[in-house]
């Protein structure tokens, strides 16, 4: 089934399951804080691995002690789809192992 943009209501319903994530300007975003720059770097590598597995890629920013993601789906013209939530869910699941919050 082709991926389609989600409605505002569908986005809000899914965001309720993902504390810390928000939707702004047709993008799903979240920033994480980590214990060190090295820990943040390791999390970026882990996210990159997951993104390649999913073949879905966020704009992924490494800060001093922070990792920030911003994602939408290019193939539908830059809207939020199930693919963005699938990536967000997987990042949420790996975050605790990096001590990210
Ligand atoms: C060919 C490849 O499947 C596409 O270019 C993928 C790769 N990663 C992607 N990432 C995102 N965020 N949106 C896309 O539409 C997308 N498309």
TrEMBL record:
Keywords: Lyase. Signal peptide: none annotated. InterPro entries: PCD_sf, Pterin_deHydtase. PANTHER family: PTERIN-4-ALPHA-CARBINOLAMINE DEHYDRATASE. HAMAP family: Pterin_4_alpha. Belongs to the pterin-4-alpha-carbinolamine dehydratase family. This is Putative pterin-4-alpha-carbinolamine dehydratase. It comes from Streptomyces coacervatus.
């Amino acid at each position: 089934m082709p991926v389609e943009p989600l409605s505002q209501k569908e986005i809000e319903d899914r965001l309720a399951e993902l504390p810390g994530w928000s939707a702004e300007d047709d993008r799903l975003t979240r920033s994480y804080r980590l214990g060190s720059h090295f820990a943040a770097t390791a999390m970026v590598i882990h996210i990159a691995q997951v993104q390649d597995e999913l073949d879905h890629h966020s704009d992924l920013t490494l800060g001093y002690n922070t990792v920030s993601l911003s994602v939408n789906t290019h193939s539908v013209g830059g809207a939020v789809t199930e693919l963005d939530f699938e990536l967000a869910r997987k990042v949420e699941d790996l975050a605790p192992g990096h001590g990210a919050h």
